[in-house]
């Protein structure tokens, strides 16, 4: 299992790019947790905590594709680092001013969200340049998903440790300072400085003119709903059991399960169409979320959280391949950024719904939102099966034109996304 990942990491620049992106994304990966804990510590309600986290998620959803398109047009260093600095300043404003002025608090999280740098999409655009072979790029996608789960495992624990040692405000400041350093490491690397997107046709829809991409985004909106609702539901569960640390362990267990699932998924080459495989994985993901509604004792709930996470990283890794197969030529960063956006919008919707669900029906109701999100994602994939089955859906397919989805040397491989 490890040999394939080591082969990827031995490639020049690969380890630095993966580590830098992981560290640079830490503020975004922990923002919902940090905002909820900060709001509760400041005396805010669950509804306010959910609303602020939702505002951040929606702002991220707006900013990611816009910044992704800017990266495709102007390159990575000129967009990624300035955006990271502005985003960190937004979170610093929230940490230093608190909730004394709600308009200022909302403005702070909106600025932080809009300027969250599209490091995820940027990394996936760089993999073909750095790795070259299709099998290595696909394995890197799986490794990328596993690395995300390391962040989602360590991130909540790091936030709770910083909160315990100092304060929620200090946690916001430290996490975002670390994020700027990660972005700096990425944009100073040779591949990032040299990368240029493939030529693209000017079109106001950009990547969204691909029907298959739209279908995938619709499904992953509901995966985002599930994940966002768990953020609030986990805090409510921890409050029910009187220990703040319970929340960190639940989120870490969820990330650990996804880490294991992603590591196993990426250790082999999979035959068949990735779109069909994605439907199976999302079905298993939905089944994993449903038992969380039982809300048993802490040890059993931690085990259920780990089980719920097992198919998350495989679903994400498989979705990367599907995005690559359906993205129009020259829109690679934007297309991957739209995937981040759907997660942001979905997570925002999930946190916004789960907050009132806790106050109306209790913790089990908020976990029910997660189960419903997983089922809805599966239904979207089933309903759009014909669209997803044809990555080259277009009136005419001409190599190098907008209908040549990736300008690929082989179907579904974005070899055109090189410097």
Automatic annotation (TrEMBL):
Major facilitator superfamily (MFS) profile domain residues: 212-419
Primary residence: membrane
Transmembrane segments: 46-67, 172-191, 212-234, 246-266, 278-294, 300-323, 335-358, 364-383
Topology in membrane: Multi-pass membrane protein
Region (Disordered) location: 396-419
Pfam families, per database record: MFS_1 (PF07690)
Keywords annotated in UniProt: Membrane, Transmembrane, Transmembrane helix
Compartment(s) of residence: Cell membrane
InterPro entries in the cross-refs: MFS, MFS_dom, MFS_trans_sf
Xref: PANTHER family: MAJOR FACILITATOR SUPERFAMILY (MFS) PROFILE DOMAIN-CONTAINING PROTEIN, PTHR23542
Protein known as: MFS transporter
